[in-house]
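Q: I have 177 residues here and want to know how they pack in 3D. Can you give me a structure?
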Amino acid sequence: MHYVLVDRARVKGWGLALCITLGALMSGCASAHSVSPKKEPTTKRGKITLRKAIEPRRNAPPTRIDPKAQTTPSGLRHMRLKAGTGDTHPSPSSHITVHYMGWTEEGRVLDSSYQSGGPARFKLTQVIKGWQEGVQLMVVGEKRRFWIPGHLAYADSPMTHVPKGMLTFDIELLSIE
């Protein structure tokens, strides 16, 4: 098991920080670090937190894709869980605030803003391709479930400790800036 060192001052919610950290590692950014699993995991209050990359299963949704789900040309599957308001969609350069919960193909919780203490705010270009494509389909107040195929997540990542298969995310779009 690997652990990921993240800067919580930049992003609330360590899984999105994981997404950003993985992207930074692949692009050679010095602000993200992978830590050997031999080191003791610790949690500190403040900017830097060390956490497991994948937590045990908790309240996982069915990993089976709902037959009512729509499919985009890239293979992203999605289904509206709650209607939103308005007609403005985020652009790739938008800063968004979301609540989310994500699971691996095996039903293990990958990340959750609910478990990490509050909504996450970030620029849409800082996350995996499946999020970038899917969130642009949403309007404020809307909640959707996304089944993100591996090629829109971490399948191309050279890192061995990231989930390679399909990821499932429930995302609620709270605001767009």
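Q: Anything worth noting?
A: The longest strand covers residues 167-176. Confidence is low (pLDDT under 50) at residues 1-14, 16-58.
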